[in-house]
Amino acid sequence: MARLGMREWMAVGRVMANGPLTRTERPGGPCDRFEDELAQFAGCQGTLAVSSGTAALISALQACEIGPGDEVLVPAYTWMASAGAVLHVGAVPVLVEIDTTLTIDTTDLASKITPRSRAIIPVHMLNRPCDLESILSIARTHDLKVIEDACQAVGIRYQGQVLGTFGDMGTFSFNQHKNMTCGEGGAILTNDPDLLTRARNAHDMGLGFRQSNTTDPDEIFLGNNFRLNEMQGAILRVQLRKLQSRIDRMTRRVEVMADQLGWAGYPVAPLHDDGPAASLVLTFDTELEAVQFSERRGARRLFDTSKHVYTEWGPILTRKMAHPGITPWAWAGHPNGPGPDSCPKTLDLLKRSCTINAMPDVPLPIVRYLARKLAA
Question: Are residues 232 and 362 in the same domain?
Answer without folding.
Answer: no
